């Protein structure tokens, strides 16, 4: 039977016709194109790059940006796309998040007109892939400490340093690299093939297996001044990109949670134990399903509210921290409970829950860990920045 969504509380009534249509398009794409191949991709640690042109054609890349062939979706429409993609797999949603929020957005917001017209149409249709290099081996939660430098060299710059855990790094035509300059942290567009620039993929991941994760190395890597994002001023510009991406995560993880909940619910009404009764007839099982659907409903409401505020320009980074942290945490708990309710079957890849569970461990860590977002919320309510 076709998936009809997880909607306990008539949350659908908060969406207009256009939003529901965008969601339906993304849902169909996820079900027809991603779900049939994702288990094998995950087993083989392969990103399904054959889907990239379709992601572009559907307008999902840079979906909430205007101009340069971008779809100009509202933030709620964009969020619903993220939700449906992540219902299939967090790795596919990560690809779309990075391309749109972490590569196209900085070029859109901080780039020169030449950078925008050169890159945005190609990134939008997927003929070019991008990555975002902020994290370094010794600086994850604290990117302000980064060691990568960009020093003046005549009219251009020389970059030196290493970035790691970079989604799409090994397949990117263009890397947005953040580096320390005498004037502060700046962003650079480094093209594949630039002498001194190299990448190596990270293997052995037990999470996000259908996503490429790499290290970037810059060794006396010369770029022209035209490679610098002229509008990017300090770490706050890099963090502004992360706010865009975290917003999408706040929606995306609801999709993973929905898939885990629905898988568990369907399983529990069919699976029988003790006197041939469905395990769903046991109170302890119902309590878990009740917890899941309640938390999913709260996460949906938080996401819609954040989206409406963002469309009015009223969502700030501390709002997005709460959205990312809460929704990721409940999605991870839904995945764990679902895995539990499926018993031994829950550990196989015949069901999607263990894959979601493993993926969500990454989602909890990247784009600001759960702890760091707690401290952002803590700072908002106390005025004291505990992480500094
Ligand atoms: C699959 C994957 C893809 C990624 N993609 C990208 C990407 O595309 N681009 C990119 O730049 N990065 C990317 N990252 C990196 C990610 O953003 C970092 O892993 C994240 O910021 C955490 O940094 P860390 O791993 O160095 O952990 P650490 O910063 O070392 O943290 C380890 C633990 O210490 C805790 N901790 C640290 N400081 C504090 C504090 N002050 N108070 C309380 N607790 C604290 C953390 O919450 C965490 O629990 C990716 C990571 C993964 C796993």
Descriptors for this entry?
388 residues, alpha+beta, Butyryl-Coa Dehydrogenase, subunit A, domain 1, Butyryl-CoA Dehydrogenase, subunit A, domain 2, 3 domains, binds flavin-adenine dinucleotide
Which hetero compounds are present in the coordinates? flavin-adenine dinucleotide
- Can you say what the CATH homologous superfamily of the largest domain is? Butyryl-CoA Dehydrogenase, subunit A, domain 3
Shape: globular
Name of the CATH class of the largest domain: Mainly Alpha
Report the CATH topology name of the largest domain.
Answer: Butyryl-CoA Dehydrogenase, subunit A, domain 3
Q: List low-pLDDT spans.
A: none
N-C termini distance: 51 Å
Radius of gyration: 21 Å
* Proportion of helical residues: 40-55%
Mean pLDDT: 97
Return the domain count. 3
- Broad structural category: alpha+beta
Q: Quickly count the helices.
A: 10
Topology pattern, helix = H, strand = E = HHHHHEEEEEEEHEEHHHH
Write up this protein.
This protein folds into three domains: 11-125, Orthogonal Bundle (Butyryl-Coa Dehydrogenase, subunit A, domain 1), CATH 1.10.540; 130-233, Butyryl-CoA Dehydrogenase, subunit A, domain 2 (Beta Barrel), CATH 2.40.110; 236-382, Butyryl-CoA Dehydrogenase, subunit A, domain 3 (Up-down Bundle). The chain contains ten helices and nine strands. The protein is α+β, with helices and mostly antiparallel strands and 388 residues long. The protein has helices at 17-44, 52-57, 75-88, 90-110, 113-125, 235-270, 283-311, 317-341, 353-365, 370-382; strands at 130-133, 149-153, 156-167, 174-181, 184-191, 197-201, 213-223, 272-273, 277-278. The chain has a four-stranded antiparallel β-sheet with strand order 2-3-7-6, covered by helices on one side. The mean pLDDT is 97. 51% of the residues lie in helices and 15% in strands. Bound molecules: flavin-adenine dinucleotide. Flavin-adenine dinucleotide is lined by residues 98, 131-135, 140-141, 165-167, 208, 213, 362, 365-367, 369, 371-372, 375, 387. Flavin-adenine dinucleotide binds at residues 98, 131-135, 140-141, 165-167, 208, 213, 362, 365-367, 369, 371-372, 375, 387.
């Amino acid at each position: 039977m076709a998936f009809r969504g997880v909607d306990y509380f008539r949350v659908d009534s908060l969406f207009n016709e256009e939003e529901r249509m965008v969601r339906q398009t993304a849902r169909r794409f996820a079900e027809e194109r991603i779900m049939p191949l994702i288990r094998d991709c995950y087993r083989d640690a392969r990103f399904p790059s054959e889907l990239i042109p379709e992601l572009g054609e559907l307008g999902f890349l840079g979906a909430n940006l205007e101009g340069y062939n971008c779809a100009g979706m509202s933030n709620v429409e964009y969020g619903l796309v993220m939700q449906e993609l992540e219902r299939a797999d967090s790795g596919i949603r990560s690809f779309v998040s990075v391309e749109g929020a972490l590569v196209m957005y900085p070029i859109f917001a901080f780039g020169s007109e030449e950078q925008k017209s050169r890159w945005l149409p190609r990134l939008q249709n997927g003929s070019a892939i991008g990555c975002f290099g902020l994290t370094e081996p010794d600086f994850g939660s604290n990117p302000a400490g980064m060691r990568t430098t960009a020093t003046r060299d005549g009219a251009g710059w020389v970059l030196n340093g290493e970035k790691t855990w970079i989604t799409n790094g090994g397949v990117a035509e263009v890397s947005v690299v953040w580096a320390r300059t005498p004037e502060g942290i700046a962003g650079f567009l480094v093209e594949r093939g630039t002498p001194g620039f190299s990448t190596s993929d990270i293997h052995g991941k037990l999470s996000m297996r259908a996503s490429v994760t790499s290290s970037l190395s810059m060794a006396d890597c010369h770029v022209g001044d035209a490679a610098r994002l002229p509008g990017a001023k300090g770490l706050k510009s890099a963090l502004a990109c992360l706010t865009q991406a975290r917003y999408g995560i706040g929606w995306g993880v609801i999709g993973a949670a929905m898939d885990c909940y629905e898988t568990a619910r369907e399983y529990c009404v069919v699976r029988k134990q003790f006197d041939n009764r469905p395990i769903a007839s046991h109170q302890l099982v119902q309590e878990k399903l009740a917890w899941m659907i309640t938390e999913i409903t709260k996460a949906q409401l938080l996401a819609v509210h954040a989206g409406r505020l963002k469309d009015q320009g009223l969502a700030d980074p501390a709002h997005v921290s709460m959205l990312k942290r809460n929704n990721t945490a409940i999605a991870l708990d839904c995945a764990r409970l679902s895995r539990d309710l499926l018993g031994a079957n829950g550990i196989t890849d015949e069901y999607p829950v263990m894959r979601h569970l493993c993926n969500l461990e990454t989602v909890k860590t990247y784009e600001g860990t759960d702890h760091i977002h707690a401290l952002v919320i803590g700072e908002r309510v106390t005025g004291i920045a505990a992480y500094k």
